[in-house]
Amino acid sequence: MGRADPEEGQLPAPVKPPDGGWGWIVLFGCFVITGFSYAFPKAVSVYFKELMKDFHVGYSDTAWISSIMLAMLYGTGPVCSIMVNQFGCRPVMLIGGLLASSGMILASFTTNIIELYLTAGVLTGLGMALNFQPSLIMLGTYFDKRRPLANGLAAAGSPVFLSALSPLGQVLLEKFGWRGGFLIMGGLLLNCCTCGAVMRPLDMGMKRKMEKTQDKYEAKEMLPMGGKSEEGIGTIDGTKKGKKAKKKPKKGKKLLDFSIFSNRGFIIYTISKFILVLGLFVPPILLVNYAKDTGVPDTEAAFLLSIIGFIDIFARPACGMVAGLKWVRPHVAYLFSFSMLFNGLTDICSARASNYTALVMFCVFFGISYGMVGALQFEVLMAIVGSQKFSSAIGLVLLIEAFAVLIGPPSAGRLVDALKNYEVIFYLAGSEVVLSALFLAMATYCCLNRGKKKTPPPEKTPSAGGGSDTEEAESDVQEAEEHSSDNHQPAHGTDSSVVGASEEANHVEDEQSGEGGRCPEGDGEVLARSGCNADQTVERDSF
């Protein structure tokens, strides 16, 4: 009776995240998509030596393939957000899987580096982007209380696939050449379509049953006098029919919500991620060729990425479990800052690694820190903006990060061609990651925490460190309910007995509100005019 009607363009009632059930299937699909999206651009670096020989280009030219993939993954974020808000996650992911596969298949027939940029870079990168972002949105829809653990498990797909795709790429390169390897990789990417097929939205039928049950319960509470309760239910049904007959035209749905830029936490996070991405992906992309240049055999050099992936497999779920602890979750931004600091210091301390043992030690510590960053990056963003605005927030963040992706690895490759020295590259990349960690920690403490101490928080605000998204959604729905109840008019054409029952219910409600006593002074003009206290106002609005 005061509920927002989706058919009128109002905010629909949210479905509570199940934190399990079919959500585990969605989690597995997100695990696979994340693995392909993040591991594939790194695993392709195994083919760079052969591409340099066939196309007579430098390393910086081949590094653009991985950079374009990552740039499409990040830069098409707003496009993905608009498509998801317009068509839903499942259709977008099915199209993305076909694009990703066709890009690698077409790349196996290319004759120059430019064609590789357009096929393996643009087309495959766009396909993976259309899979990656919707999978994260679905994961946030199905999980709330277990969301940190779910994010950690899904993020573990990246190291699992990296540890598998890198040796697989080396084997395919030796047996079939880079063209055969690209063709087989394209076939593997068709699995993204399967993952998209399992991303079904939450069951709306359950919500309709709950609404019907709640309507009957409300009628019985208002009219407890036997047969009149049935008349009250008839009044509710007649009212809803009259409301549908007079429904207003649907309001346009926001395809991209730019209001999140008014959130200071979102601005701080975005700046920090931009600096982070400048140096985060450089070491794993350069690692294989760095090891080969120091005299490490090709097979052992490719195995270094597998070491990072193996350590990363355990680091991400473990970090997700730690982030889900009650005393850690409110401070998850600081844990994210620590993980970035750990990663940057690992790059700096390992810049002079000159033998295979030192490179293995670097891979161990890099895998731990890289796993922590991967497990926390989207959990922090969800905690800042909430699941309701996450689809728009992640699209805008990825767009901004795309510029950093286009700057970082290609610049590093050009410096390698010019200086013939990897040590400077590791120092530079590590310094950028350390800078992002310090900025996030200091800005969070100075701009957010101190601001909270000076100004008392409102009665209900979502926690910046991982408050429940369900509570935030319920507050939005309550506002929509109040707006709908103000504009509500009873249906015409009801018989006299039904009208009499509804008048009697209103009379009983008015008597109950009159017995509530006086309103407390200074509670605001709205309460003073209504003639009731705050608790009674909430009760009446809820009906």
TrEMBL record:
Residues 452-543 are annotated as: Disordered. One of its GO terms (cellular component) is basolateral plasma membrane. The keyword Transmembrane helix applies. Its main location: membrane. Keywords: Cell membrane, Membrane, Symport, Transmembrane, Transmembrane helix, Transport. One of its GO terms (molecular function) is symporter activity. It is found in: Cell membrane. The chain crosses the membrane at residues 21-40, 63-84, 91-110, 116-137, 149-169, 181-202, 266-291, 303-325, 332-353, 359-378, 390-412, 424-448. Residues 23-448 form the Major facilitator superfamily (MFS) profile domain. Residues 469-479 have a biased composition (Acidic residues). It is a multi-pass membrane protein. Belongs to the major facilitator superfamily. Monocarboxylate porter (TC 2.A.1.13) family. This is MOT3 protein. It comes from Alectura lathami.
